Amino acid sequence: MALSAFTAHSAFASDYVLDSSLSSISFATIKKQFVVEPASINTLSGQLKENGQFQISVDLKGISTGVPIRDNRLNEIFFDSMTYPTVSITGSVDAGLLSGEAKQVALPVKVTMHGQTQSVTFPVVVMPAGDHIMVSSYAPVVIGGSDFGIPAGNLNALSTTVGDISISDHVPVTLTLMFHK
C-alpha cells in the first residue's frame, strides 16, 4: 500500500503544473482599422505531462483590457462567457524538448472555444530550465472568433455599445506559459 502511494506520488511529481502568476494569453482588438487595444488573460490553469501532453484551461472572466466596462462587454456580449466560460487548449510537445537547450518549434494545438474545436499552430520557443519550462510565442497567431462559431451578431452587438464602429473579428494572439514541477 505504501509503495503504491509512493509510486502514484512520484508519477504525479514528474508532471509540470502551469504557474498562473507567470503565465498569460495576450491579444489585441482592432477597431476603426487602426486603433489597437491590448488585452490579456491571466486566469489560466493546466499541466504538462512528462511525455509532452498538455492541457490548459483559460477562464474568460479573467480578460483584462485595463478598462473594466470593455472587459465586461467582451465577456458578456462577444464571448458569451455565461454559456461558454472557458477556452481549452490541448496538445503534445516532443518530450525531448522538455530538457536541454531552448528551441523554436511550430506547436500544433487544439483550441476549443464557444463549443467548437479548431487546430491552431503557435510558433513558440520551448525553454527548459531545471524544474521549470517556459513556452512563449515568438510570433503572434491571428485567430478569428467566427472560426469558432462566435456569431457575427455578437460582434455587431459589441460594436453597437461603442457607437457602431467597426471591430475586427480577427485578433493577433500570443502566449507565455510557465510550468514548474
Automatic annotation (TrEMBL):
It holds the Pfam family YceI. SMART domains: YceI. Residues 15-180 form the Lipid/polyisoprenoid-binding YceI-like domain. Gene3D superfamilies: Lipid/polyisoprenoid-binding, YceI-like. PANTHER family: PROTEIN YCEI (PTHR34406). This is Lipid/polyisoprenoid-binding YceI-like domain-containing protein.
